[in-house]
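Dear all,

This email documents one entry for the complex benchmark we are building for the journal club exercise. For each entry we list the sequence lines for every component of the assembly. Then comes the predicted three-dimensional structure of the complex as a token string, followed by one or two observations. Please use this as the template for your own entries, and keep the labels exactly as they appear.
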Amino acid sequence: QKEVEQDPGPLSVPEGAIVSLNCTYSNSAFQYFMWYRQYSRKGPELLMYTYSSGNKEDGRFTAQVDKSSKYISLFIRDSQPSDSATYLCAMTVDYKLSFGAGTTVTVRA
Amino acid sequence: SQTIHQWPATLVQPVGSPLSLECTVEGTSNPNLYWYRQAAGRGLQLLFYSVGIGQISSEVPQNLSASRPQDRQFILSSKKLLLSDSGFYLCAWDRVPSQETQYFGPGTRLLVL
């Protein structure tokens, strides 16, 4: 079993829709939880990070962590074509980041 | 502000040839440095990490090696490339002692033929 499970999609939504992305994990020692956005042929770009259960909002993005269920989510409101990318969840303990496989999202104009 | 550079951006190499990929970080001192490989459609696999000059930890046994000759320079090498070494190589850094998150470079796309 992988430490971090993420549905690879692909996910296609119309412009303006809410995008919902999820990851589950098995290691209860994970301390910090992150979402990265990766455009094709580019390095991952940090979107959000949090260390506690609950919601964290930044503009159109909301990150949600449920440590009791070992489940994290990312919601993108009012999605735009520029949001089309691969979204990677990641979580860390000590020096090591563990990544999900990434979900490819396409927002149709 | 901090920036991270990688070069080359793209590389095509024959099987059996050597490899040297370079990563440098600007705007910070004594960072933790990391090398990852990302295969098509898959997540990132940690290859090496370094907490200081000359200190390298390997996560996956393979024909690759890493070195850190200077505080903000991290090099990924191979003496003889294999077909399976093809992939997207990413360098990342984070602050010490905080390990909240890592920041990635633009990556090097390596194709071994």
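Observations: Chain B touches chain A at residues 6, 32, 34, 41-44, 46, 49, 51, 59, 88, 90, 99-107, 109 (CB under 8 Å). The CA atoms of residues 20 and 34 of chain B lie 15 Å apart.
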